[in-house]
């Protein structure tokens, strides 16, 4: 392991340890996606995830996280964010309805290394605009992965993400960004999905051994988000329109990107 501007470069062995954690995360998200249908609750999704993580010998990264702005520690292993909820939704017993979309975020530590991934799941048949939102957000993550190359600056990738999203008349969230990941869930650097000149000092160069949680968050309407309840966990779109969230943990290689949370 070596350090570069606060970024911890990972060895090939460490990357494989992160991939092992990523396999558990992928298993959770795959099975949650399979159970997602009208009438299922996000609490049931969370219970399944808790069992799968325990069976794998993993540690759920989100449960017990303390947010200084929130009234209590995060109580669940999954973040489940429905419709206009962007991130940090707390699983509950409200049955999901036909046409809902649910962002599901999962983080696992296994033998000292972390994996983090998210997907947004349709419940039954959804509106065409909602499907387009999911396709564009997932596409934005694909664009990022395809653009990652050693020697490139992150700003180049962020501009590609932003351009792709805005070309389809959606908005990129500014307040929440991706992050470095490894032994800790949140490491340097911060990994935004848009770019402007005010961020130039925070730009960084991609190099083999950099491992990032890349997570485009995209809104149907305005990019603005606010806290959705007095507990100050769940974040919602200011205008009440839909939003989506996709994420992979990705290692930079000599030739491009290696996705560590795709289940391989």
Arithmetic mean of pLDDT: 96
Lateral strand order in the biggest sheet: 10-9-11-16-17
Report the helical percentage. Answer: 25-40%
Write the element-wise H/E pattern from the N-terminal end onward: EEHHEEEEEHHEEEEEEEEEE
Which fold does the CATH topology refer to?
A: Creatine Amidinohydrolase
In terms of DSSP E residues, the strand content is 25-35%
**Overall 3D shape:** globular
**Which architecture does the CATH hierarchy give at level 2?**
Alpha-Beta Complex
- How many strand elements? 17
In whole angstroms, the N-to-C terminal distance is: 23 Å
The level 1 CATH classification is: Alpha Beta
Total DSSP helices: 4
Number of domains: 1
Poorly predicted sequence stretches spanning 5 or more consecutive residues:
none
Tell me the radius of gyration: 17 Å
Largest sheet: 5 strands, antiparallel
Q: Given the helix and strand composition, which structural class is it?
A: alpha+beta
CATH level 4 superfamily: Creatinase/methionine aminopeptidase superfamily
Describe this protein's structure.
The chain is an alpha+beta fold. The chain has a single domain (2-256), classed as Creatine Amidinohydrolase (Alpha-Beta Complex), CATH 3.90.230.10. It is built from four helices and 17 strands. The protein has helices at residues 12-35, 42-55, 128-147, 154-167; strands at residues 2-4, 7-9, 59-60, 78-82, 85-87, 101-110, 113-122, 171-172, 178-180, 187-191, 211-214, 217-219, 225-227, 235-237, 243-245, 248-252, 257-259. The model has no long low-confidence stretch (mean pLDDT 96).
């Amino acid at each position: 392991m070596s350090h570069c501007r606060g970024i911890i470069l990972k060895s090939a062995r460490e990357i494989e340890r992160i991939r092992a954690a990523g396999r558990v995360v992928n298993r959770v998200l795959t099975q949650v996606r399979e159970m997602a249908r009208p009438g299922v609750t996000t609490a049931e999704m969370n219970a399944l995830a808790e069992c799968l993580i325990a069976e794998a010998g993993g540690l759920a990264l989100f449960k017990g996280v303390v947010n200084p702005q929130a009234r209590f520690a995060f109580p669940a292993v999954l973040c489940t964010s429905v419709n206009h909820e962007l991130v940090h939704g707390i699983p509950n017993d409200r049955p999901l309805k036909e046409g809902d979309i649910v962002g599901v975020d999962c983080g696992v530590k296994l033998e000292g290394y972390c994996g983090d991934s998210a997907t947004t799941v349709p419940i039954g048949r959804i509106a065409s605009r909602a499907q387009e939102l999911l396709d564009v957000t997932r596409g934005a993550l694909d664009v990022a992965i395809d653009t990652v190359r050693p020697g490139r600056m992150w700003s180049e990738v962020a501009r590609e993400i932003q351009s792709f999203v805005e070309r389809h008349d959606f908005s990129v969230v500014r307040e929440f960004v991706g992050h470095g990941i490894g032994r800790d869930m949140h490491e340097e650097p911060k990994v935004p999905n848009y770019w402007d000149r005010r961020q130039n000092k925070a730009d960084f160069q991609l190099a083999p051994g950099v491992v990032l949680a890349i997570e485009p968050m995209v809104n149907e309407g305005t990019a603005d988000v606010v806290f959705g309840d007095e507990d100050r966990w769940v974040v919602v779109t200011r205008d009440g329109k839909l939003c989506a969230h996709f994420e992979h943990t990705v290692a930079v290689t000599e030739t491009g990107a290696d996705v560590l949370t795709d289940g391989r």
